[in-house]
Design goal:
The chain is an all-alpha fold. It folds into two domains: 3-71; 85-329, Orthogonal Bundle (MetI-like fold). It is 75% helix and 0% strand. It has helices at residues 3-34, 40-71, 85-91, 94-125, 130-141, 148-159, 171-178, 194-220, 224-232, 237-248, 250-265, 269-274, 284-294, 298-329. It is globular, with a radius of gyration of 25 Å. 22% of the residues are buried.
Length: 330
Amino acid sequence: MTDITIKLINAVLAVVAGIGIALALYWVLNKLAELLPGRNEDRIKPYLYILPAYLAITVYLIWPTIQSVIASFQNDIGTEWVGTDNYTKLLSDPAFRSTIYNTFLWMLVVPAACIVIGLAVATLADRLSPRGEKFSKTIIFLPMAISAIGAATVWNFVYETRPEGQPQIGLLNAIVTAFGHAPVAWLEQSQLHFNSFMLMVVLLWAQVGFSMVLLSSAVKGVPVDTLEAARIDGANEWQIFFRVVIPQIKGTIITVFITVLITVMKIFDIIYVMTNGNFNTNVVGNEFYNQFSTYFNNGTASAIVVMLMIAVIPIMIYQVRHFKAEEAAA
């Protein structure tokens, strides 16, 4: 058998075994609930059903978080307590401060650009014929099926730079040299964070489809009566869009913005594959990975992830409150 066949068989067996184990687990839990006397079965059974999920959250999320917080106050090999030295060392390091600045730059640009582009694509696609709308949305959504590492690999070929005089396999440099100019090392241009913006394009390419789908659904959900009333009152299309449509899809816009923002805060795949943080393109996620997996500085890496977690928590709280407000208004 070929390697592909073996891998396919292993994948099928893993899926079958996973489903089988899950079914067996819930069958056992159901039998345990049936052994309880009286109404206790109905009272306890829901908790038994959600018990595996809570156990998974505890093992894979809560416990590692506690360990990370503890390790952040220890030295890099975890042999002694150093207090807040890891945090002090990081925040006093100019390179790490530059990394934080780059991360904030991603947080400011990517979610906003994703909203603008996704909303523009959703609005324009809705004006096409049904077949044209389906085709255009399918093409734009396709990058969502590619992993971040796959997207970075694809765009590495777009930005690829060969020495002047050699054939340019990179798309951008092939165009540049076709017009008689010298090839450009796109990912080494750190002036005004140009290379960081080039990396942001990769994430936008991968995330715009997600933004488009949600925003398109929201736009289609705007009542036609309100649009017709606005036209009767003499509003033009721009006024209708910004004063009627946008206010009514505000909740979806906030949801998409927060979701993309959280994705940006933990991004590392694209940077790791394309520059590994060189040329002033580093971000917090990539720095954590390098500290943990490359330099084996467990204390420093834990301090980074704790700071990132502290930054994410307020956003998550706002998102939960926003969802509850949306449900209450519905």
